[in-house]
Design a protein that fits this description.
It is built from 29 helices and 26 strands. The chain is of the alpha+beta class and 840 residues long. It binds a DNA duplex (11 and 8 nucleotides) through α16, α20 and α21. It catalyses: DNA(n) + a 2'-deoxyribonucleoside 5'-triphosphate = DNA(n+1) + diphosphate. Residues 107-320 form the DNA-directed DNA polymerase family B exonuclease domain.
Length: 840
DNA sequence: ACGAGTAACGC
DNA sequence: GCGTTACT
């Protein structure tokens, strides 16, 4: 079968070219689009007026023709006549200052036509979906939806139309996912130490290129630079090593490889590997047509002429991917080493020599590992990431190159735009939404925020046994669905709807029409919660089970961001009242549930946004609560967690609990935060795990003796200087570049500056980058600065006193709540004992 | 270039 | 009291 992966505009052919992946041959097929569909803009100016006011439009060399079309304007709830201005190619429509869009500025509706996507939309071809070619025309492959899913869909939908809509989504999600033949590439260049090679100038030789493919082609291409003796001993397990006398031949071999795979994977290939190969090749005298890389300085990404290039650096630094798909397992997600260690448990090859100094063998090993890791990032868990990409292409309707390079707001934007075009709706201009629906009616608690957010209920401090946590599964998508929230339905133009107020706001919601966002997000939510999670759990077939798992997690990525985008100015359907109404309905739901629980006699200990902590409810009380909330709010409340015990302090978002299955759950406490020194973090973990053994109040007492010993030992080691420096380091991320800290000088900035200064002294230049996103490790010291970068500090400079204080405040977060005094715990306070002589 | 709310700490 | 970070 053929799977649509991408569509590009070909200037040479004057039309779009569709790229299909043929899963039988494992090849990419370019199919020219002969449908006659052209990119277009819409304007409310009637044709005569347009011709009169903007005669240059029809004289534009890219102009094709004018048409009148009927479109639904959701903001005014009317069908309107629009003039469709068609162009011969995407470039004449948007982008350049001389484009038709610029000429018509202020009149265009479809202001975001970019690249080629309009071709796909009008043809209703969906990226990632299977097709067959009939006389060169792609026809969708019929997708069978299993009976079990059909039944679930039927039971969920309110009417026939909605059932059909849901089934359409089910076909999209259930369509087969191809195994993708692909190759990962990594290059090394001969640059001097501490100089970042420029991909534009490409001054240094390419000395190694590694590749690692899905069909077993794996190896390293090396440039011969010194005596041949070294060559004989090279053995890299799993890799074929080839030497080239001449760089040009090496590049030629690389280009042949690139050309023979439908998908090429790199890590940072957009900014380094591919532009470098491109510039280097031209520099060595290659003709452009013999280089399969398409690149220019202002290009957004490096494209390959005959394949799809995925830059995994861009994909894995995408916040949604980090947070939702991988549970935030890696933090900055900046380096291949870090991401690979987190997801694969294997990092880059460590090395001491610089790249040009390395032996052939070391260089090959180092480079090959990079290619291997790059490939493995897409291959682990049975090609999980490739499958996720295909599914998210289908949901967002974005081609593979675009999906992997853009953030969630672009995915959701594209999903909604597609829906507009499908239904014959106009895509509203951002300014019009703001103009008609701009205002908010609530006041945010946090300074600088636009509207009121979630509720956090004050915890009741103490230790509680048998605590049950109930939560709303995806609360915000649920209230968007049940509240009929959408940019066109909130503050709609109908007089009779103004009575239908969103509690806690001055907004009203349409009672006549179903909102697009509401219906789409509702369908995706129901499919995830009631269909795919369920069939994934019940499926006996491993492969099928995995596909359902991938589907539900792909849906999760979209649902989790579906509320946030409406509160973001960068989102073109930005609509503050929608975002504000969402949190308002969320607050309404949680407060209502809390009141109901109290009425039923269940003590509520704590709650945050979408969850409530209930103290020892009876089965009957619980069932009543869940049922009455489902009946009344039409949002299902379910049991999330069960604790043997939970400890609350007076602080919100701070608690410690032991789950029924024996795990400990620590939220928000400093002892868990990643900037806390490992030494304290480890001690904290020891204490919480000792506590987790406790089944009742008396066994708490027994744990305390062990805790006492742990703390005493830690203090002794600290005083004796036995704790290694790295265990004492605070680890804090620079969220801005150094120069931007102009209001204050935080400690991590100080430490970063010290390090840079030291390197300048040693090398005259700065070898590493200390920029936005870097993690800075520092030690608290006794000198005037009070802080030293980990790499510059000595063990005898450690400010033991400060560390004891940090230790105390950190541990007290747990001990306080248990009514254990840190000092008392230690009997004669070793801290005082230690501090006294020092203070004199 | 997805939201708001909370805590802690240094300046 | 504000700025910054990490967390929910």
């Amino acid at each position: 079968m053929l799977y649509l992966f991408s569509v590009r505009y070909s200037g040479a052919e004057g039309r779009a070219v569709m790229y299909f992946y043929d899963d039988e041959g494992g090849t990419l097929r370019a199919v020219p689009d002969h449908s006659g569909h052209k990119p277009y803009l819409l304007t409310e100016l009637p044709p005569e007026e347009l011709l009169e006011k903007y005669p240059e439009v029809v004289r534009h060399p890219g102009f094709n023709k004018l048409d009148v079309v009927e479109k639904y304007d959701a903001l005014s709830d009317r069908w309107v006549k629009m003039t469709k201005v068609e162009a011969l190619d995407p470039l004449s429509i948007g982008g350049s200052p001389k484009s038709i869009r610029e000429v018509l500025r202020g009149h265009t509706w479809e202001s975001k036509i970019k690249y080629h996507h309009c071709y796909i939309y009008d043809r209703q071809l969906i990226p990632g979906m299977p097709y067959v070619l009939t006389n060169g025309e792609p026809k969708p492959v019929e997708v069978e939806v299993p009976e079990s899913i059909r039944r679930l869909v039927k039971s969920l939908s309110e009417d026939k139309i909605q059932e059909e809509e849901m089934l359409e989504w089910a076909r999209l999600l259930n369509a087969p996912i191809p195994k993708i033949r692909r190759i990962a590439i990594d290059i090394e260049v001969e640059s001097e130490a501490f100089r970042v090679p420029s991909p534009k100038l490409a001054e240094d030789r390419v000395i190694a290129v590694s590749y690692y493919s899905s069909d077993g082609k794996r190896g390293v291409l090396l440039l011969r630079r010194r005596s041949e003796d070294e060559e004989k001993s090279i053995n890299i397990p799993g890799a074929e090593v080839r030497f080239f006398d001449n760089e040009k031949d090496l590049l030629h071999a690389v280009f042949t490889l690139l050309d023979s795979y439908p998908v090429v994977l790199t890590f940072n290939g957009d900014n380094f590997d591919l532009p470098y190969l491109y510039s280097r090749a031209l520099k060595l005298g290659f003709k452009k047509e013999n280089v399969p890389i398409v690149w220019s300085e202002k290009a957004e990404y490096a494209e390959l002429r005959n394949s799809i290039h995925i830059d995994l650096y861009k994909f894995f630094t995408n916040k949604s991917m980090k947070v939702y798909a991988f549970g935030n397992k890696y933090r900055e997600g900046q380096t291949l080493d870090e991401i690979a260690l987190a997801l694969l448990g294997k990092g880059k090859v460590k090395h001491e020599d610089t790249i040009p100094e390395m032996s052939y063998e070391k260089l090959a090993e180092y480079s090959f590992r990079d290619a291997e890791l790059t490939y493995e990032l897409t291959a682990f868990s049975d090609d999980l990431v490739m499958k996720l990409i295909i599914l998210m292409m289908r949901i967002s309707k974005l081609p593979m190159e675009d999906l992997t390079r853009h953030n969630i707001s672009a995915w959701i934007r594209n999903m909604f735009y597609f829906e507009h075009r499908q239904r014959g709706w106009l895509i509203p201009n951002p300014e019009e939404i703001i103009q008609q629906k701009g205002e908010t009616s609530t006041k945010a608690i946090i300074k600088g925020k636009k509207y009121l957010g979630a509720i956090v209920i004050d915890p009741i401090p103490g230790v509680y046994f048998n605590v049950l946590v109930v939560d709303f599964a995806s609360l915000y998508p649920s209230v968007i669905k049940t509240g009929n929230l959408s940019y066109e339905t909130v503050r709609c133009p109908h007089e009779e709807c103004k009575k239908n107020i969103v509690p806690g706001t001055t907004h009203w919601v349409c009672t006549r029409k179903k909102g697009m966002m509401s219906s789409l997000i509702g369908i995706l939510r129901d499919l995830r919660v009631y269909v795919y999670k369920k069939v994934a759990k019940e499926s006996k077939d491993d492969e099928e089970k995995q596909q359902y798992e991938v589907i539900q997690s792909a849906l999760k990525v979209f649902l989790n961001a579906s509320y946030g985008v409406f509160g973001s100015e960068a989102f073109p359907l930005y609509c503050p009242p929608v975002a504000e109404s969402t949190t308002a309905l969320g607050r309404y739901a949680i407060l209502k549930t809390m009141r109901r629980a109290v009425d039923l006699g269940i003590p509520v200990l704590y709650g945050d946004t979408d969850s409530l902590f209930l103290w020892n409810p009876t089965q009957e009380q619980l069932e009543k609560l869940l049922q009455s909330i489902l009946d009344e709010l039409r949002i299902d409340l379910s049991i999330d967690k069960e604790y043997k015990w939970v400890v609350f302090s007076e602080r919100k978002k701070n608690y410690l609990g032991a789950l029924k299955d024996g795990r400990v759950d620590v939220k928000g406490l400093v002892g868990k935060k990643r900037n806390t020194p490992d030494f304290i973090k480890n001690l904290f973990t020891d204490i919480t795990s000792a506590l987790s053994q406790a089944e009742n109040i008396t066994s708490f007492e027994e744990s305390i003796e062990k805790i006492r010993e742990d703390i005493k030992r830690a203090i002794r080691l600290l005083k004796e200087g036995e704790i290694p420096l790295d265990q004492l380091a605070f680890n804090v991320v620079l969220t801005k570049d150094l120069e931007e800290y102009n209001k204050t000088t935080p400690q991590h900035k100080k430490a970063a500056q010290q390090l840079l200064m030291e390197y300048r002294k040693l090398y005259g230049s700065v070898p590493m980058s200390v920029t936005r996103g870097s993690l800075v490790s520092y030690i608290k010291t006794r000198d005037k600065q009070g802080v030293k970068h980990l790499q510059l500090a000595r063990i005898d400079e450690v400010d033991v006193e400060k560390y004891l204080e940090v230790m105390k405040t950190t541990l007290e977060q747990v001990l306080d709540a248990l009514e254990i005094s840190f000092d008392e715990l230690l009997g004669v306070s070793p801290i005082d004992e230690f501090l006294r002589p020092q203070q004199k």
